[in-house]
Amino acid sequence: MSPRTPPAPAPTGTRSRAARAGAAGPPRRHPRTTAAFTTLTAARREALRADCARLAELDDTEFGVRLLAGTPTHETRDPALLRNWAAAATEFGRELAASAPPAADVPHPARVVETTGGLDRLLLARYTSRPEPTVELFTDTIALGEHLVDVLGWRDRYPTGSLRAAALAHERAHGLLHHAPRTRRALRDRLGHTALRLGRLRVPGHVAGADELAAHAYAGAVCGLGRSPLLLTAALMGAVQALGED
Description:
Distance between the termini: 26 Å
Shape: globular
């Protein structure tokens, strides 16, 4: 799970996500503790709150559209098509949450490893299937995100501990999609994308990024969040940028 939300209003004076790790320029200084918020000037703190309030005015589907628009292969897609895909993937994720077995009964359960270093890569969690299913939780990013919720006054949307729970649920959804071909096909069929058509023969196509949207929706539903995790990850991305450049 990553704060990889496509372009959204960036906090005043900060760079866009295009300047993240790997782009040209000097190394970015990331905050190491939640106390870093106290280093922000009053003006920057208010600017961050204002930018996040504008993000909160967007509907959850819009975040899905932005995520898809920023995914390779979708650069020239019709925004209306992206919105349809975003809505379909989100609905699928919520339905998956309602029908999936409890975490304790999930086939091929992943072991959970807590580590740090997520801020350097803007990662909350990461799922790997080999050599064994594993979820890495980046506690530095999660702790910063929890503190950001308090700074923004968003506890009604994201209860205490929900960021860690959502990160785990998000990666659990990826595990379900990875180990269940039938579920992957169901998502593909729901999206209705055609990769190739030969007469009456239709070959369904893969929609890059749709599994990520389904996983976010799954996490939000399982954890009973008031808003999509995509809103919080977008706000967290802006906060990391503001803290690193203040």
